[in-house]
Amino acid sequence: MSSAKEVVIKSIDEIESLLARAYWLEEEFEGVTQWEAYTSVEDKYKELLFRLSHESEGHKESLKKLISNVEGLDMDAIKQNSQARNEIKFKKHTEDVEILYEVYENDQLALDLYQKIHSMTSHEFVEEVWNGDDPEEFFEILSDIIKEEKEHINALGQYAQKLGRVK
Length: 167
Ligand SMILES: [Fe+2]
Hints:
binds fe (ii) ion
């Protein structure tokens, strides 16, 4: 028998706080960092950063759709909860690869969070609180975001490699 206790997400409060974190990551961290990065780097990197920033907007829309389908979740409360994290400051970089590395790290953080929500949330719980037709949609929305975050990490990985921080 394993001694590790598994986390199971099965209450509105738990899912609300995790989704608020995810929303904050998309809004502030990914959105702002990617956009700041876009404006700071050389032209040759701009196309990639523009796409990542645009797709993060899509993630935010997907999150809103997911949140609106869960009984007991309130978008305003989530926005407020995510604003409480606003005081985090971004590191300042001068090198393009350093900037790209920071975006890479943020996307990894986001990926980790989405994967946790996806794997730890109880399917029975989602069935109870899902307002839409198919509760599996909750997990499908997360899977789609996870796929894109992985693609972002791959696209940025080559620059992270240049820093020698990724093997
Ligand atoms: Fe994202």
